[in-house]
Design goal:
With 101 residues, this protein is mainly alpha-helical. The chain is 88% helix and 0% strand. The protein has three helices and no strands.
Length: 101
């Protein structure tokens, strides 16, 4: 067996069965739904409602700056989670389409 046949056999050994490929497809669909719908809609809505409810409570100027900073950090974290879930979903899509671990 030459080196190319050995590489081909190594690639064939890494192939996924249909259950693993289907699982990758389900994870892809779930992460796309989570990253493009759930996080933006609910995350930003909850952050905005949290900001509005906490701003009404505070009477100190410095506390409103702290609340604003916390909400800005929450929005940045939500944006990070959106991109992270999209990257995971693309990884699962490639795994599903290629069929290689």
């Amino acid at each position: 067996m030459n080196k190319y046949q050995a590489k081909l056999e190594a690639i064939k050994a890494k192939r996924l069965n249909w259950k693993d490929r289907l699982q990758s497809l389900v994870i892809f669909i779930g992460m796309v739904f989570f990253g493009l719908f759930v996080l933006p809609v609910f995350g930003f809505t909850w952050t905005w409602s949290l900001y509005e409810s906490l701003i009404r409570i505070t009477t100190n100027i410095w506390m409103s700056y702290v609340i604003g900073t916390i909400c800005i950090l929450l929005v940045i974290f939500i944006i990070f989670l959106i991109f992270y879930s999209i990257s995971i979903s693309l990884k699962q899509l490639v795994r599903f389409l290629s069929g290689i671990k």
